[in-house]
Amino acid sequence: MPADKMTEALLDIVVEEIARVLRLPPKEVDRHRPLAEIGMDSLMMLELRTTVEDALQIELPMMSLSSGITPADVARRMHR
């Protein structure tokens, strides 16, 4: 799969999980807005991290979910 398609697929997964945690429709999650501004607190970010790691069998360092990171940033970091 080409890199841009892989990043987009990962972004879809991240957005789905953020929407689930926040109990929002996925279309309401802004892919380029920081997680904290979307409404995620540190416990929600930890839940996101755990769910994504379990689903994709990857390690996502908690520091990668630091302040100012957007869903698109998370997907790009997962692709690396």
Comma- or semicolon-separated keywords:
80 residues; mainly alpha; single chain; 60% helix
Describe this structure in a few short sentences.
This protein has 80 residues and is mainly α. It has helices spanning 3-22, 35-38, 42-56, 71-79.
Count of helical regions: 4
Q: What structural class do helix, strand and pairing data support?
A: mainly alpha
Tally of DSSP β-strands: 0
Overall average pLDDT: 87
Description:
- The protein is an all-alpha fold and 80 residues long.
- 60% of the residues lie in helices and 0% in strands.
- The model has no long low-confidence stretch (mean pLDDT 87).
How is the topology of this model organized?
Layout: H1 3-22, H2 35-38, H3 42-56, H4 71-79
Helix pairs in contact: 1-3, 1-4
